[in-house]
Amino acid sequence: MQFLKKERRFQSLGPTRTSSPARKSAPSTGGVKKPHRYRPGTVALREIRGYQKSTELLIRKLPFQGLVRETAQDFKTDLYFQSAPNWWVG
Prior knowledge:
Blueprint (H helix, E strand, L loop, with lengths): L41 H12 L7 H15 L10 H4 L1
């Protein structure tokens, strides 16, 4: 018993090099060079590595303290915070 192979035809995704006429490009007359751009995400990863290496605070102390107090008030109303010394906070 013989098996017949199915003939497969693939559609071309665009014009082929042989079917399109050859174009002659005009000589460029001192075109402006594009500025260098990094691929998407490269600069973001570099910034993340820099933040991971640094020890600086990214959020200022007082606004963060206010946010913590406001969030704590949502859970329990009668909360008091003990003031910490400067070396403790950072």
